[in-house]
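Morning - protoporphyrin IX containing FE inputs below, output right after.
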Amino acid sequence: MTDPIDLADLAFWRQPPARREAAFARLRAREGLAFFPERRVPLLRKGSGFHAVARHADVVEASRNPKLFSSEPSVSTPEPPGWVKHVFGEALVNMDDPRHARLRRIVARAFTPKMLAKLEDDLRRAAAEIVDDVLAEGPGDFVRQVAARLPIRVICDMVGVPQRDRARVHRRVDVSTEYTGVRADLVRTLRMAAGNVYALVDLQRLVVRLGRERRGRPGDDLVSALVNADHDGERLTWRELGSFFTLLLVAGNETTRNALAYGLKLFTDSPDQREHLLGDYDARIKGAIEEIVRHATPIMQFRRTVTRDCELGGQELTRGDKVALLYVSANRDETVFKEPDVFDVTRDPNPHVGFGGPGPHFCLGANLARREMTVMFRELFTRLPDIRSAGEPVLLESNFDNGVTRLPYTF
Ligand code: HEM
């Protein structure tokens, strides 16, 4: 049956978060899963509709069972336009086993503890330079001056993008993140989509060039590790390398940026939590980060497609049905989290699904994101002890990316 709350209507996602959260609470409390017929969105194929998975237990069950809840052909709702596959190629996030397992095995080389330890110095230097610039420029927009700068720089360091190409990467990423694929204005959407395709193709061209330079002449960087075969003879094809780079930029950039921005807002709104954290930063930051990711939920949902008739959350499902895993709702499930709206850095346990549910697609970059946030907040709170947000965040209009486009701040 359909529900008066309409998650397929973009107007739903434009509402203030508190209104959306009240709607999710109703979806969690009802029996079965609410079904939402899809609407037509410019440039996107109109699908039949999707079931909303709002309860934590159901999100976990679907994530754990990829044979029944497939990530192919895509994990976004509405269905992405055909060109996305051409441009992105076959992305890890949209694959099932055995293809997913093979690709993840190769790209996981980028995220070993050794690789992350190697990045630590770069990360510290990047955070320190960002704060140097902030001190020179004075306060303004936290997203532009701080949150947007760190993740992209880290990905460039990881991939080994030469300094001379970095401005180009920044420009392309700015264009590509402007397009969210869910806007109602057709002309604007078309213009942004065209810019987005060009930006993504150019980013792929750049990393493939780096890969060609480094195949057979490996350096100590990620591209070298991915394009040269390991002891099992496995390596990425050029196309896979291009797709992986754009996936890293898309998956690792905005998510971490938004988590940093929400973090500052949450610490400003809850000074007691900040004080508690600063009482023993090293011991308490781990729990604080998990709580920021739970409370903010930078990625609000991913989709799965049902591979055979089954049941989820008391709802009969048929092969081909789509289910939207609403991390944003699961992370406020009152049966799992006591006082779920409260930001509590001591919350323990904190089994949030902000990095995805348990299963093969659990965020590959979770440890990197945690390190980035640990280092950045340490630098900020040490050198700008009275830093705080100074107004409400300007939010992106999206049903997927819980994006902050602007956050005024002061120190
Ligand atoms: C706070 C920051 C982040 C959040 C909230 C986040 C969230 C997520 C979520 C929810 C998924 C699950 C996808 C699914 O189940 O279908 C995911 C997957 C993924 N994330 Fe993250 N992410 C973050 C940071 C990063 C970073 C820094 C990177 C890399 C630089 C990254 C790379 C990836 C990749 C490659 C996948 C796909 C894994 C797969 O399909 O096997 N993420 N992320």
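Note: The radius of gyration is 21 Å.

O.
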